[in-house]
Amino acid sequence: MHQRFPEEVCQKIGNYVYRLIDPRNGETFYVGKGKNNRVFDHAEGLQSVDDDADQNMGPKLERIRAIKSSGLEVLHVIHRHEVPDDAIFEVEAALIDAYPGLTNIQGGHASSSRGPMNHLELIDKYSLPEFPEHPDHALVVININKLEDRFDRRAVYNLVRFCWRISKTRAEKAEYVLAVVRGVVVGAFRPTRWMYATPENFPDVPHADGSERHRVGFVGEDAPSEIWDLYVGARGKRITNPKLKHVQNPIRFWKV
Q: Per-residue confidence at 71, pLDDT binned at 50, 70, 90?
């Protein structure tokens, strides 16, 4: 018989945030939020009707099946309960940020703009010049991660150009692609061609093995100096317009 919370407990604990743990190595592999008995459903690999942010459960299910096939059960911890509705996303996001390498498909709520930063990143974020509130150009604004040096234009370009779950037709209407890290625009590029992410289209990308051929990337060049100065400047420009900020989706369109 599977574990469940009694009805009276469900009513008292309210919203909660939990971790799923692999008993084979003690590793946390998933962080989620829920009510009632959702934690038990997820530990069993069942999908709840309200799994709006969890439609692709592949990596998590693979881990759960591997645990079960070894004769063990998924461990779980309720980290916080009685969490107010307006705080549940923030609590979940903070926990997601604390455990890198999770099987969560989506990052934590607002992690791209308010997630873990060192003091220099925070100083930059709140002291840099502001990005134009209402840009005049048609833009694709892409949030990138794993950037070691945001002043290395080639590194920024290589990260932002490959590859995204995006409409090729819509992307082709954009004049420029902007790269964003932690809410700061760090690069501006003019795409010359959008293509599907195949080895044939991107022979210079080592990890273009065809597994992401349904996604799209581009080849292009640095934006003209006046455009770079307008949108990036010397050290980057911070985005303040909510319509251009990244929350869950790494892609934002403007006038496209």
A: confident
**CATH superfamily to which 7-109 belongs:** GIY-YIG endonuclease (3.40.1440.10)
The reported pTM is 0.59
Q: Which residues contact 181 (CB under 8 A, 6 or more apart)?
A: 143, 144, 145, 147, 150, 236
Question: What residue spans define the domains of the chain?
Answer: 7-109, 119-254
pLDDT in tens, 8-54: 898 999 999 999 999 988 888 899 899 999 999 888 877 654 444 44
Contact yes or no for 143/183 (Cβ under 8 A): no
pLDDT band at 56 (very low <50, low <70, confident <90, very high): very low
